[in-house]
């Protein structure tokens, strides 16, 4: 039965991405779509008010500058609102302004599509902040990553212009994120997720005691949280909270919401390239790594925790510590694998309570950061590895490597090497910093191998713009708020800048005709080779950290 709960969502995912991918293609290429007359009213109003020339094309430098400028303005405004929320309206619970370092961490987190939370939403934010900072940032950060991916696609397929960032982000929000969020929000409300502007309700429980129940615009946040692969929760318990995720059906809705757009975007790439096989090849590589990870996580959790067994707790159902009974091992393992592979960060169980191997799966998904990933960035990272794979294969046969009819030369490989190095550098160097500083060590709640994993997980989640955490880590401190904020910022924008520069370099090159000796990149052999390259580089980079953390902890538990 549990396997059916895993297999059915995956089948639905594959069925959904084709029509959604076609819709995304029509939106991204400004072709006719359903509801154009309605959406054009809003789009044209935005263009007029913001004085946007929708026919203007940008090169990669202009596109990057637009991303940074717009995001910087929103970071500044959002930070101010968080600091002064105690004096503003829509604050029925009289919540004070957010502390300085926590405000910095929060605004960077939500603008970078990370949504790492060092606060508990129901007690740390007013309804106003939840809506005009958190929910607003969820839309704009998701649209920013989506727009960057579209610009990257246009560049590598040979278009001279990379589009217009302002047009892209407008159309993505009005025609994709808003409509899908409304539909998903209504579905979640039907399952019992609250949607209100009222404050905390005090009720009498069946035991005759008084209990405060936090309320707010939960469904609105939950819908864009998942469809935008954001991940932050209205409540501290995130999607394990019964108000965020009350039923197995709401759990299915949230899982598919996380998976839908990142998977569809790969199909959109095949349509833009006019080579669906190429799109399915990249999709196959992503899906292959995901299918490797999922059963490992499931069987690790199903095996149970021997320490709990030693103290007399039955492990017949598996390791249920930190999991909701209404979801069980099957839906919890699927949610864990999906949220870290698609870099959403939403959780329906406590990742700090996963078995060492189950936690290692979540960790490796974020370390690789190519298994579909969040809005756009996961796709861009996988394409980066695809170009590297072509280059390495070209070296083996002594030919100038070509990808999508463009020669891959030294400039592109140097940029790609830099992009590959940045991700582990941020994770490992900041982890090392935390391990040698008292301010970092004091956050560890579970010393030993697990404590190392807590630290590495925090910075991996930050660098991958995921946002989930081993919440045993005491992270709401000046040190953790600041360092995680820096890692989130650099992990987001450096990779976007570098990969858009690669796309710009390829766009400027002339296409070369394919010959009998051209290395094919749209077949099964390339998919297998690409998976191997990703796993080998991931292992060479992160295996010591995995061995000293989850693997060592697993061997200790099962000795």
From TrEMBL:
Membrane topology: Multi-pass membrane protein
An example Gene Ontology CC term for this record: plasma membrane
Pfam family, one: KdpA
InterPro entries: KdpA (IPR004623)
UniProt keyword annotations, A-Z: Cell membrane, Hydrolase, Ion transport, Membrane, Potassium, Potassium transport, Transmembrane, Transmembrane helix, Transport
Subcellular location, record wording: Cell membrane
GO molecular function term, any single one: hydrolase activity
Membrane-spanning ranges: 6-25, 63-82, 131-152, 172-193, 252-273, 280-301, 376-395, 415-437, 478-503, 524-548
Highest taxon above the source species: Bacteria
Main location: membrane
Family: Belongs to the KdpA family.
NCBIfam families: kdpA
Function: Part of the high-affinity ATP-driven potassium transport (or Kdp) system, which catalyzes the hydrolysis of ATP coupled with the electrogenic transport of potassium into the cytoplasm. This subunit binds the extracellular potassium ions and delivers the ions to the membrane domain of KdpB through an intramembrane tunnel.
The protein's assembly and partners: The system is composed of three essential subunits: KdpA, KdpB and KdpC.
UniProt protein name: Potassium-transporting ATPase potassium-binding subunit
UniProt organism field: Clostridium saccharobutylicum
Lineage, uppermost ranks: Bacteria, Bacillati, Bacillota, Clostridia, Eubacteriales
């Amino acid at each position: 039965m549990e396997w059916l709960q895993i297999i059915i969502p995956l089948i639905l995912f594959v069925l959904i991405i084709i029509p959604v991918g076609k819709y995304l293609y029509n939106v991204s290429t400004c072709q006719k779509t359903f509801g154009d007359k309605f959406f054009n009213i809003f789009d044209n109003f935005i263009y007029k008010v913001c004085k946007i020339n929708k026919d203007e094309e940008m090169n990669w430098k202009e596109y990057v500058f637009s991303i940074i400028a717009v995001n910087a303005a929103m970071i500044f405004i959002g930070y101010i609102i968080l600091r002064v929320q105690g004096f503003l309206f829509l604050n029925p619970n009289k919540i004070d302004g957010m502390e300085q370092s926590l405000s910095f961490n929060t605004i960077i987190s939500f603008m970078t599509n990370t949504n790492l939370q060092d606060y508990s939403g129901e007690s740390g934010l007013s309804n106003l902040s939840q809506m005009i900072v958190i929910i607003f940032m969820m839309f704009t950060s998701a649209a920013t990553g989506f727009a960057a991916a579209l610009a990257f696609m246009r560049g590598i397929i040979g278009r001279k212009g990379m589009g217009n960032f302002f047009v892209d982000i407008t159309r993505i929000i009005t025609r994709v994120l808003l409509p899908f969020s409304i539909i998903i929000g209504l579905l979640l409300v039907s399952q019992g997720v609250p949607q209100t502007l009222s404050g905390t309700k005090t009720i009498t429980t069946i035991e005759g005691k008084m209990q405060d129940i936090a309320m707010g615009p939960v469904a609105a946040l939950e819908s864009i949280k998942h469809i935008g692969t954001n991940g932050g929760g209205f409540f501290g318990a995130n999607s394990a909270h019964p108000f965020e995720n009350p039923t197995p059906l709401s759990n299915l809705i949230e899982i598919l919401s996380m998976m839908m757009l990142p998977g569809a975007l790969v199909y959109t790439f095949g349509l833009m390239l006019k080579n669906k096989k190429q799109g399915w090849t990249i999709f196959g590589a992503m899906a292959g790594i995901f299918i490797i990870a999922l059963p490992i996580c499931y069987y690790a959790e199903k095996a149970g925790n021997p320490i709990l067994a030693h103290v007399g707790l039955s492990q017949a159902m598996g390791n249920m510590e930190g999991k909701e009974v209404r979801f069980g091992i099957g839906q919890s393992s699927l949610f864990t694998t999906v949220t870290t592979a698609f870099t959403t960060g939403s959780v329906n169980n406590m990742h700090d309570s996963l078995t060492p191997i189950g936690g290692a799966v979540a960790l490796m998904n974020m370390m690789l950061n190519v298994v579909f990933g969040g809005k756009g960035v996961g796709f861009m990272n996988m394409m980066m590895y695809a170009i590297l794979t072509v280059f390495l294969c070209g070296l083996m046969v002594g030919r100038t490597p070509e990808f999508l009819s463009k020669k891959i030369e030294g400039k592109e490989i140097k940029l790609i090497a830099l992009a590959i190095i940045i991700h582990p550098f941020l994770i490992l160097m900041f982890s090392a910093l935390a391990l040698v500083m008292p301010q970092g060590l004091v956050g560890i709640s579970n010393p030993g191998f697990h404590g190392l994993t807590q630290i590495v997980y925090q910075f991996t989640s930050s660098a991958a713009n995921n946002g989930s955490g081993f919440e045993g880590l005491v992270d709401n401190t000046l040190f953790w708020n600041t360092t995680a904020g820096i890692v989130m910022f650099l992990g987001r924008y450096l990779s976007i800048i570098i990969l858009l520069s690669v796309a710009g370099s390829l766009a400027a090159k002339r296409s070369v005709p394919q010959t009998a000796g051209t290395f094919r990149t749209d077949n099964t052999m390339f998919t297998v080779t690409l998976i191997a390259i990703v796993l080998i580089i991931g292992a060479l980079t992160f295996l010591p950290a995995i061995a000293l953390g989850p693997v060592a902890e697993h061997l200790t538990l099962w000795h």
